[in-house]
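Example record for the data management plan.
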Amino acid sequence: MKIAKVEAFPIWVGRRNQLLVKVTGVDGTYGWGESGLATRERAVMGAIDHYREILVGREAFDIGAIWQLLYRSQYFEGGRVFAAAISAVDIALHDLKGKALGLPVWQLLGGKQRNFVESFASVGTPDDDELIEQLATLAGEGFSCLRVAISQRAPLARNADDAADVFEPRLSIARNVPMLIRARERLGHAVSFGIDYHHELSLAEAASFCQKLPRGTLDFLEEPIRDETPEAYAQLRRLTEIPFAIGEEFASKWQALPYLQQGLTEFMRLDICNIGGFTEAMKVAALAEAHYVDLMPHNPLGPICVASSVHLCAAVPNFAWMEYNFNRFRPEPEINAELFPKHIRLDGPVFPVPDGPGLGIEVNEELLRQETFRYAETPKLRRRDGSHTNW
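Corresponding structural encoding:
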């Protein structure tokens, strides 16, 4: 089947933009994909505009060859913008092929290895007592893994009259260490427990944070520092024994490889909408399996990202938990029931693996075409001296 049309839809859903991509074959069969480069959707659309000229007329079922063509079609290979565009196209092509063959996407990936996909719940309310109560409630509901999301907790200023966008890492550490100790005491050790520091620390700050925690407090520390320099993670590894969960920013197997080869992560946090879609995610999963590392996929986007992640997790042997954002998705304010009349819903602490063709997602295209893009930015944090810092 030849590709007839490639369309990109940058739309506002709930509290954020989503960039959806639709690939349609000459017989009218179509598939949906999603890009993961949040708040930079127009940059990805530019890449998709270029790729559209390459894709139309190509054989839609030759997904692996198309991935290689798109990746190698420019002299300046790689990068997160291109990878996010390729991800959306690759996911859409898998959805299209599954629909055309009457098969769920996991069948295209080698078959199902589990009947459900276990999730971990993420909470980050600013109030410590409320946060610990939420964690305990979720543990009581059957979640076997819980995470504190530092980006959802209020930035910390030194004085009450400081601006709300001021973040001081050392103050954050001082505040979060006792909260984490209390949370672990409340949860016990039957539940796996971690924190996402959203790469807001320096190497020294991350080491200090780890060393202030009693042994066994955390089962994983996610993204304490930025990922550009694997050697920095190697240094941090020498300073702590807490397992790391890294990879949501990776845009290729080559970016993931040194973290696996050098033993710098114990959980692979790949994002299927950023890594390069199913084609690249399966290769990273295989590399991780060879190093005895389980996937712990990043899943912060919309229903297409959720469905794609579920199919991926169902098809790989090395899997731990899939992300579930408690504050964002429960109840489901961002998953517009009219816009996505069919999507995969959480059942208790797990996602069921769908048996229908493709991803198992339906999009109300009439409503979709009425939605608009809105300019949006992530928080812009600074230190109290005025310098910029990470969010």
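Summary line stored alongside the record: The chain has two domains: 3-104, 107-358.
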